[in-house]
Amino acid sequence: MSKPADLLLTGALVVTMNQEFEVIPNGAVAIKDDSIIAVGSTTELSEAFTAAETLDCAGQVIMPGLVNAHTHVPMTLMRGLNDDLRLDVWLGYLMPVERHFVTPDFVKLGTRIACAEMIRSGVTTFADMYYYEEAIAEQTAEVGLRALLGQTIIIFPTPDAPNYEDGLALCRDFIERWNGHELIQPAVSPHAWYTATAELLQACAALAQEYDVPIHTHISETAIEQQNSLNQFSQTPVEWNAENDVLNAKLLAAHCVHITRNDMVKLRDAGAGIAHCPSSNLKLSSGIAPIAEMREVGCNVGVGTDGTASNNDLDMFEEMRLAALLAKVKRNDPTDVPARDALELATIGGARAVHMEHLTGSLEAGKRADLIVVDMDGIHNTPTFHNNPDGIYSRIIYAAKSTDVAHVLCNGRWLMRGRELLTVDEAQAKE
């Protein structure tokens, strides 16, 4: 007796990114409600399930939706505003602009544009840090993406709070309204140690622990930042954050370009996630994060785009490829971060980094139906070789483009089908 399913995707090469890195030729995925109920061969699942709808995905890859582990989505409205500057100079320009222009309507529009761009590049989950985060949550939930959304808290006035005490109160209210939502995970986001005080960091850590929500902050993005922390506290930024309880919460640390091996061990032991942002770090000349060493130590490493004001796009296919290539240059070792590992960074590795691996990041029964279908027959992905069992990962990382993404589902809901966005009016948002 066959079981009911809402959707059966068949005939594809299924790249599961499960613990065994199982790849299933002529594979299929069965979905019911918001979850995956089976992954296997097309023959097996076609016999086991009677689906309300079946979609033939021959010549395509079915894989987990990508996880963008760090961004600032409303900054799509600042794309290209002030490029080719050092980070501290860039921030000195940008923060006053934000205080003047950023409103709830600003972040809603910026979020809609960002969600459209991310869906088109195969993202189903992202981690954000910005102002008016509740407005971002409203738009993200409406569009249908999964997100960890951190309300930014800074020691000086911000667009949504005149002081950090008000910022903390705003964050508490945001957490209480959204914690437990099926798509939105609220978080506490002190911007960075250098825009905080010890008291602010401790208060943020206490708030995150009180509600058992993540804390999302920038750590060791530049060499200047690292040296300033050593000069000021005789500690690295990781050590200073640890002293102020930040590592006691479920931490997502963005960038970590200049962390030491001892820092890596501290982050690993704390169960923290690290968001590597290669394009942004290159463009701001911040450096190349030592992600191969991080992975050897056992850190949870994901990949993010950062905001579009410093990238200037949200293309995760580009970030995966850069993550693999830069890791090889960092230690002059072409075997560092091979293609399979690079895809792991953007799927199950990213899910671990944002503390959502129980929900997303791999194609397994019981996980949410967050997946993408990628065309693999473009001229840029021809020919196809089968001499290496990891060949499919090489094709995805080194040859595939974000424009190859044909279909996107998140939480069992179609967000894009046949390259047509279904939950965002793209033309209206652009206008």
Describe the 3D structure.
The protein is of the alpha/beta class. 38% of the residues lie in helices and 26% in strands. It is built from 16 helices and 17 strands. The radius of gyration is 21 Å and the shape is globular. The chain has helices spanning 42-48, 87-101, 104-120, 133-143, 164-178, 198-211, 223-233, 237-243, 261-269, 278-283, 291-297, 316-330, 339-346, 348-353, 391-399, 426-430; strands at residues 3-15, 23-32, 35-41, 49-56, 60-64, 66-71, 123-130, 146-153, 184-190, 214-219, 250-255, 273-276, 300-303, 371-375, 405-410, 413-417, 420-421.
Question: Any key phrases for this structure?
Answer:
globular; 431 residues; 17 strands; four-stranded parallel sheet; 38% helix; nine-stranded mixed sheet; alpha/beta; 16 helices
Q: Outline of this structure?
A:
This protein is α/β, with parallel strands linked by helices and 431 residues long. 38% of the residues lie in helices and 26% in strands. Strands 1, 2, 3, 4, 5, 14, 15, 16 and 17 form a nine-stranded mixed beta sheet that branches. A four-stranded parallel beta sheet has the order 6-7-8-9.
